[in-house]
Amino acid sequence: MIYEVTFQVRVTDIVKGKWWYETLLDREPDFIPHEGFAEWQLIPRCWLQVAEGIPAESSGPLRLGVMNIEAERERLEKDLHLDPFEIDERPEVPVRWATFSDPWGNRIGLFEYLSEAEKESKLSGE
């Protein structure tokens, strides 16, 4: 039985990496167990670890669900000085999504459910 999930990305500069992911997630880490490491609980039992080290080439994307993908794109392009990135969608897929990279090449994505009912059910835990 799997009861928890942890994703790890590596950055070459933990100070810059911690700041970058604090800005991405719009909050400070939940846990810093030792130097060179920071951890955020994204949702119950799902953690993102940022560790100082050599980044894995072409890792990800780690996709994060958001309520308003346009607003998040605007915030991230401004706050993280990201190059403009496209939001994709296909008629047969019930989400819109976008992918970009952190300064170390780790690929990150956002997605938004198109159905308001689906968004609400995700927030209520159904």
In short:
The chain is an alpha/beta fold and 126 residues long. It has a single domain (5-124), classed as 2,3-Dihydroxybiphenyl 1,2-Dioxygenase, domain 1 (Roll), CATH 3.10.180. The chain contains three helices and seven strands.
Kindly describe this structure.
- The protein is of the alpha/beta class.
- It has a single domain, classed as 2,3-Dihydroxybiphenyl 1,2-Dioxygenase, domain 1, CATH 3.10.180.10.
- The chain is globular and about 45 Å long.
- The model has no long low-confidence stretch (mean pLDDT 94).
The run of helices and strands is EHEEEHEEEH
- What is the distance, rounded to the nearest whole angstrom, between the alpha carbons of the first and last residues? 20 Å
Radius of gyration: 15 Å
Residue runs with pLDDT of under 50 for 5 or more positions: none
Q: Please, how many helices?
A: 3
CATH superfamily: 2,3-Dihydroxybiphenyl 1,2-Dioxygenase, domain 1
Quick one: overall form? globular
Please give the share of residues in helix. 25-40%
Average residue-wise pLDDT: 94
Domain count: the total is 1
CATH class membership: Alpha Beta
| Structural category | alpha/beta
User: What is the oligomer described by this structure?
Assistant: single chain
| CATH fold assignment | 2,3-Dihydroxybiphenyl 1,2-Dioxygenase, domain 1
Order of strands side by side in the largest beta sheet? 4-7-6-5
Gross CATH architecture: Roll
Strand content: 25-35%
Count of DSSP strands: 7
Major β-sheet annotation: 4 strands, mixed
